Request: fold
Amino acid sequence: MAKYIQGATGDWEVVIGLEIHAQVSSEAKLFSGSSTKFGSEPNTQVSFVCSAMPGMLPVINEECIRQAVRTGLAMGCKINLRSVFDRKNYFYADLPQGYQISQFKDPIVGEGVITVELEDGSTKDIGVERLHLEQDAGKSMHDQHPSQTYVDLNRSGVALMEIVSMPDMRSAEEAGAYFRKIRTLVRYAGTCDGNMDQGSMRADVNVSVRRPGAELGIRSETKNVNSIRFMMQVIEFETRRQIDILEDGGEVDQETRQFDPATGTTSSLRSKEEAHDYRYFPDPDLLPLEFSQAFVDELAKGLPELPDAKKSRLINDLGVSEYNAGVLVAEKENADYFEDLLGELTQKTGKDKDKLATQAANWVIVDLFGALKKAGKSITESPVSIQHAAELLSLQVDGTISGRIAKDVFEIMLKTGSSPEQIVEEKGLKQVSDTGAIEAMIDEILDSNQGKVEQYRAGKDKLFGFFVGQVMKKTQGKANPQVVNQLLRPKLDG
Amino acid sequence: MTKLTELTLAEARDGMVKGDFTSRELTEQYLSNMEQGRELNSYIVETADIALNMADKADQMIRGGNATGMTGIPIAVKDLYCTKDVHSASASHILNGFKPKYESTVTANLWQDGAVMLGKTNMDEFAMGSSNETSYYGPVKNPWRATKENGTLETKDYVPGGSSGGSVAAVAGDLAVAATGTDTGGSIRQPAAFTGLVGMKPTYGRCSRWGMIAFASSLDQAGPITKTVRDAAIMMESMASYDVKDSTSVERTVPNYEHALTGDIRGMKIGIPKEYRMDGMPSAIEKLWQQGIAWMKAAGAEIIDISLPHTKYALPTYYIVAPAEASSNLARYDGVKYGLRVEGDSLDGMYKNTRAEGFGHEVKRRILIGTYVLSAGYYDAYYLKAQKIRTLIAQDFAKAYEKVDVILTPTAPSAAFAMGEKSDDPIAMYLNDIFTVPASLAGLPAISVPAGLSQDAMPLGLHLIGRAFDEETILRAAQVLEHAAGFTAKPKVWWGDK
Reply:
């Protein structure tokens, strides 16, 4: 379905391409042994290589190569058994070598396709052009001194993967979905922590507009956008800005722009004329990077189950709803929590996974996520352990407590951290399934509500719920609702 | 008794092991010669204290029976090598007094074997030059001066060749037993030829480049400058190593090169490339080449005419590839981190001021050429084409080595010239490298051997190029040439107290 934007002079189509920079998860930098730890004192993680001392030479960190290949495999892209590191030459104070080692003509990972799901339930294929490895630069700090700039080289030489999409996205929503999918994939593969606050992932956003079916328009590139929300704002803003220019009879400049989060707008950073000539050429300090298909196969074997495969397994093997499965696999930690919980629950109850999965999924998504959201915590910081969660669900499965009581117990668990069994025991919350006791209670209630009984019998079926409620009230919610139903109906129906 | 400083490396080694003299005695004599020879401007820094300290340690090694070929041998180190806490600036003002906190792999290998560092030698700035006239520390004077028709010595100064001009002047003037050089397009071999010495560039990848201040990374290679072929073999063995810190160094066992010097080249096939016959080449050079062919033949080698058809493109190719790499390698000298900084009113202003003052003319020229040939729109026409021709040149050699074992050519198209004679004419200067550059582009080992004198009694060299990693064959052939030539001339001392 084409999504056109209405302008004053007719429809427009936006075309978006993303260059995502993802920091490789690795102990050491791409070409030196210096640490990559985030948040250290400035210039404490700098080797002779990262500070570009005379005569120093880069040596490839093999783990970074493995991570790039894993990422390529996770994205389903072609892995290039031969790739070349090039020098991208430009001067800046935080670029010690005067060039960035990157990959230009021959990247380590080639083309692939990412399938994303959109809000309306449809899917869309977005092409990946390539993934290449490159060094990060250092950081210029302009706020440390009134007239001078300080440079921190801790990041200098840290390995980045640049993942370049095809210009296949047609809306901010699609771009957001694509970015999220890439983030999910690198986190599953363990190749990037996806932490956008710390700059582990950021994007250069290419936007152009055109008349539907026309040739590609002239694009702008907005640099270093570091959140999905900002990225979507950039797209909205750029789309509107470019349409306005074109409808006024103007021309869009091919330029590099920057985003201002405070205003949600972009502004020109440099025009095409001011663009750097990077003078790429193969880095003569490094031989072409070559590895075997066996090396790739070995890495493929080590990859965990990826989100698409996991999702279809949850749906097809475990009977989880498509929506719930989608929510669970979006973050690897959530899926892990769910699967661990389900495993634990299976052990506790002796029942098959597929009999338990729907209930567990609902609980994780509704109850647990709700509680985490309220507490502003992530699942890895969950105050409820897998063991306690499994206990709670197992108490429900074996009929010890009702679903309603389970919610109360969960509240107490969140507050106290106690085990659900202990809470149920201490507070006397065990479900009453004793038919004799419930029957006596029902009789008592029917007696004292004769009028309502008459009304019910006269055809006001809805009152059934009233009687159930009365029983529950009397047992403080502990009566087994199924038992109540079974006993109540014949008595009412007389 | 000959002065200790007239001994070859092998003789000095044997003398010390026999206990005839100590490394300290030898080193002291060299330090005194260095003082006498300051007029040559061959050293930028003399490291007398370090030298004596190292000599004492070497003497202990010798006494302990742990001597290697290099133990106790006082050598000079080209300023391009990073030596820990000692001036290492590639003779450039932009590295203004830079003292690294690390030691290059090649020099570390030498010190490990007990060699003694006398000081850091002058050179063309960043190794860019063929006459050692581009150094920030001033030109180096060749210890050799031409002899006039009346038999007296010229009074004008001659260039020692370049870029390892300080290293050759130190060895030729007996200010060091031997020296390290570096060779990008001929920077060891041409100056060795200009000063009557042996200069060897091994196969690319044989020595680690770690800690060598880069000029053109795909061409730079370390090598020895010595008085004899045997000395070169001994020193080469110590310098060479595989190094995980240099991705372009090659993992291969380093042979005992001295063992290769059997003196027997019977049946060896010597290729004579017709393309190395240059118009306007002095007759003395052509004559020497013919003489070299005759010597090899007399020693039992087989002479085979060969063709290296792409030779004429080698020099232009080199002067695209080397400046391209240099323009990028020298980008790190920006005034931000170390070396010279000349303040400006902005970051760009600081860059401009620093680099304008820090780099000399020749370096600037090559940065400009290199930047140009890598620029958008010119890359394909220059850099990419040059890389293709480079491959063709390597293929020429590979083809030739199907028929021959070694290729014999002159080292340089002339003898050493007078200072200032070519410094205003870069093309004439670049032509010095015409015979040495092809082997550099192909990454092959090559050696220059002193083989005769020009009409005015200046030294001339012959050049042997070998198969990749077959340093042993060119060393063996070179020694046969050396013996046949019987080159014993030394420069007449005109400097110091005489």
Notes: Residues 77 and 112 of chain A are 4 Å apart (CA to CA). The first strand of chain A starts at residue 5 and ends at 7. DSSP finds 15 helices and 16 strands in chain A.
